[in-house]
């Protein structure tokens, strides 16, 4: 079994045990709270665990290049604590997915109903009074908020076993910054969905790039890398180098996500075809498309992008427009360029070669993924 798989197994075991403990707490309050933990635990199953893996391999990469190497006993103790930190990152990510699906009116996640749809079905199947849709929305907000709190609980469980108080506070600072940045990115995302059609097309690419920087690049790649490195006391120069590796990789990660959101295969992505088009996502792919269209075509394009009930024919028309505009080819080129920039920055980092090889393998998975 690979070291990465061992970490994934440990993180999933930790999440299972944690949820089991929380289940006992919730059902002791009221047995009818069981569906809340059921839906949360269902979402926590699976996923690529990129955030946990980036944190782990960053820690490994920096561990052997410290000015004052730690003992094997300290390493063993820290590795166990790191599992909680990695589990916290995955819990936080799942919480963000719950809220993201609600904000985007996205009905599926990983081929299954999104959490708000599961609460909606619970209401309908139980024959309760009131609006099932409203109940689903409220339930998912509460579930997501619970998970954010639990992510902090898991994170604190790990960092309080840090090698020093200075390291603990550095990790907490990075975690706090990540929380602020991803929420800012979420707001900017919904802002662009609503304000995008009213803005100048020439501004759209810059605004879309800012969204993906804060909503994805920093939270999905940079924060886990910096937290992992900080947990072993990496120096500021190493942290700056990891940021230089992380940001272009995170941008490539989101651009690949944008392409899959429009052209991905449902059986692979777990999302309906053209899901981003139905949600009216104002991505870089969409911004580049709008830049190349004439006024009349842009108007029609925007009208379709604000229609949440697109037919399969309309989705096909939008896909053909995006391809024909050259935007898809431009985004694929951007992914390649960002990926190369990221790998060059990684190559220049003065970190452990074994860890560096695993970070490179992760980076290539991020850029070349199909789901």
List strands and helices in order, with pairings:
Blueprint lengths: L2 H27 L4 H11 L5 H14 L8 H33 L3 E2 L2 E2 L1 H12 L5 H28 L5 H31 L5 H31 L4 H28 L2 H4 L5 H4 L5 H9 L2 H11 L6 H13 L2 H22 L4 H16 L3
Antiparallel strand pairs: 1-2
What does this 3D model show about the protein?
- The chain is an all-alpha fold.
- It folds into 2 domains: 1-46 and 71-162, no CATH class; 163-371, Farnesyl Diphosphate Synthase (Orthogonal Bundle).
- The chain has helices spanning 3-29, 34-44, 50-63, 72-104, 115-126, 132-159, 165-195, 201-231, 236-263, 266-269, 275-278, 284-292, 295-305, 312-324, 327-348, 353-368, and strands spanning 108-109, 112-113.
- The two termini are 23 Å apart.
Helix content: over 70%
Sheet-strand content, in percent, reads under 5%
CATH topology of the largest domain: Farnesyl Diphosphate Synthase
Give a short account of the largest sheet: 2 strands, antiparallel
Structural class: mainly alpha
| Order of adjacent strands in the largest pleated sheet | 1-2
Rg from alpha-carbon coordinates: 21 Å
List unreliable stretches of 5+ residues.
none
CATH class of the largest domain: Mainly Alpha
How many strand units? 2
Task: Tell me the CATH superfamily of the largest domain.
Answer: Farnesyl Diphosphate Synthase
Distance between the termini: 23 Å
> What is the H-and-E element order?
HHHHEEHHHHHHHHHHHH
Anisotropy-based shape: globular
Summarize model confidence as the mean pLDDT. 92
Task: Report the total helices.
Answer: 16
Task: Identify the CATH architecture of the largest domain.
Answer: Orthogonal Bundle
Total tally of structural domains: 2
């Amino acid at each position: 079994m690979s070291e990465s798989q061992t970490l994934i197994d440990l993180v999933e075991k930790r999440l299972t045990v944690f949820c089991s403990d929380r289940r006992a707490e919730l059902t002791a309050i009221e047995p009818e709270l069981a569906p809340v933990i059921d839906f949360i635990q269902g979402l926590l199953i699976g996923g690529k665990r990129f955030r946990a893996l980036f944190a782990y391999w960053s820690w490994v990469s920096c561990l052997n290049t410290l000015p004052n190497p730690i003992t094997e006993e300290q390493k063993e103790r820290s590795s166990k604590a790191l599992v909680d930190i990695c589990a916290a990152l995955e819990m936080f990510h799942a919480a963000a997915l719950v809220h993201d699906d609600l904000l985007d009116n996205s009905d599926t996640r990983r081929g299954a109903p999104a959490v708000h749809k599961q609460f909606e079905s619970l209401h309908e199947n139980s024959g309760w009074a009131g609006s099932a849709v409203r109940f689903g929305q409220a339930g998912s907000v509460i579930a997501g908020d619970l998970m954010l709190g639990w992510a902090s609980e898991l994170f604190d469980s790990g960092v309080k076993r840090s090698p020093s108080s200075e390291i603990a506070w550095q990790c907490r600072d990075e975690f706090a910054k990540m929380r602020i940045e991803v929420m800012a990115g979420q707001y900017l995302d919904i802002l662009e969905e609503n304000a995008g059609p009213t803005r100048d097309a020439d501004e759209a690419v810059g605004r879309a790039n800012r969204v993906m920087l804060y909503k994805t690049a920093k939270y999905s790649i940079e924060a886990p890398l910096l937290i992992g490195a900080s947990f072993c006391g990496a120096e500021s120069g190493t942290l700056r180098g990891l940021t230089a590796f992380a940001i272009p990789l995170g941008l490539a990660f989101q651009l690949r996500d944008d392409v899959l959101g429009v052209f991905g295969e449902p059986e692979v992505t777990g999302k309906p075809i053209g899901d981003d088009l139905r949600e009216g996502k104002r991505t870089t792919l969409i911004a580049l498309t709008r830049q190349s269209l004439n006024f009349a075509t842009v108007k029609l394009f925007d009208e379709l992008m604000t229609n949440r009930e697109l037919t399969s024919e309309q989705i096909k028309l939008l896909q053909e427009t995006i391809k024909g505009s050259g935007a898809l080819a431009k985004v694929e080129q951007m992914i390649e360029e960002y990926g190369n920039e990221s790998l060059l920055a990684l190559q220049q980092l003065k970190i452990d070669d074994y860890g560096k090889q695993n970070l490179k393998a992760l980076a290539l998975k991020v850029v070349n993924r199909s789901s």
